[in-house]
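Forum: Protein Structure Q&A
Topic: Joint prediction for protein chains with partners

I've read a bunch of threads here and the consensus seems to be that you should model interacting components together rather than docking separate models afterwards. I'd like to see that in practice. Below is the full input, 401 residues plus whatever partners are listed. Could one of the regulars post the assembled result?
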Amino acid sequence: MLNGKKVLFIITGGIAAYKSLELVRKLKEKGAEVIPVMTKAAENFVTPMSVSALAQEKVYNKLFDLTDEAEMGHIELSRSADLIVVVPASADFIAKTATGQANDLASTIILATDTKVLMAPAMNVRMWKNPLTQKNIKTLDENGIKFVGPNEGEMACGEFGFGRMAEADEILKEIEVYFSDKKLKGLHFVVTSGPTREPIDPVRFISNRSSGLQGGAIANKLVEYGAEVTFITGPVNLDPPHGANVISVETADEMYSAVHSSLPADAAVFTAAVADWKIKKTEQQKLKKQTGNLPAFNLTENKDILASVSKMKKNRPKIVVGFAAETENILENAKSKLMKKGCDFIVVNDVSLGTQTMGGIENTAIIVSDNEVETLPTMSKRALAEILVKKISRSLEEMDA
Ligand code: CTP
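Posted by a regular:
Agreed with the consensus. Here's the joint model:
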């Protein structure tokens, strides 16, 4: 229940605004106090009258309103809530807030607040995929703003793809998680992420295309759920997850040592794309090219970090999750990897050419365990992180029950 919780509910202009009415109603049913704020554009899609009737509150929509300022000024409004939600968050509003603009009441509230903000983006697929929007999302993400959705699906404009706003129930669930006691509080998680680099000589290395996005998204979600997270990452171009204890490594051997010295943990998630091989003997000097004479690299296998933790006899984390990057026989390979490595879940991704999973922002995954195969639709790595963290959280709860 959300009894006594105050939610500042911002509605911006977009066709998905009609779904915000359903969410306002559901929040009220759950006992929340809803304070509605609407942008001018939002009023083209839903009327302040209907919003106000459902929220049983007046709608705030002017930055400089003498009566409002006398009753509750815009700064006070931004501080008065336990949570601020933006449903829908239009591309324009996202851009505005990402650049720190404050030219209407809604954007001023976001700039002035110290309260957690949750946005439910909704826009045309091309607008969502536009690098400018993605840059804005990244900026807001780095500033602690949370997102729910968008999902993939049919849009009001007739196109299909990412950009469709999350459903009211999905947003409600996210709000409930925010207000629930932090589910993973007091639990320690180890997460590996990114690629490893195996040096050939002082300037060259063997590596792979992993961006570290999926691992970062999982660590962020775990922190949000209250877990203590040790995040062990290979070299990536990403900001480390806020609130995690970050250990940066380069090689698989360094990652192996960092993981084992971070244990014990309640659970471990191995998203890193660890290089399978390293050069047996790294050259101390840069190898010189000798035309017609190709260098022969003597390789040796890296230690399998996931298997080494899964098979620990003492103090094994209660849940161990591996990832599998496959290009063929995806399910079959995942099942045999689950057995071979001895972990509890394998999240298998199709990384065949053209999927753009490695390095991309989306993932199409199947979660495989001993007794279940859960096939998921294509979704953002952030959305997958959420599903996975909830699954781990549920499994841990069941183990303790
Ligand atoms: N992994 C690991 N240490 C390694 C290799 C892999 O911890 N030396 C982990 C990865 O983090 C991932 C899982 O094992 O969670 C599977 O990785 P993947 O590259 O798909 O499998 P491999 O064991 O390398 O098998 P293959 O390359 O033959 O598919």
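The chain is about 35% helix and 25% strand.
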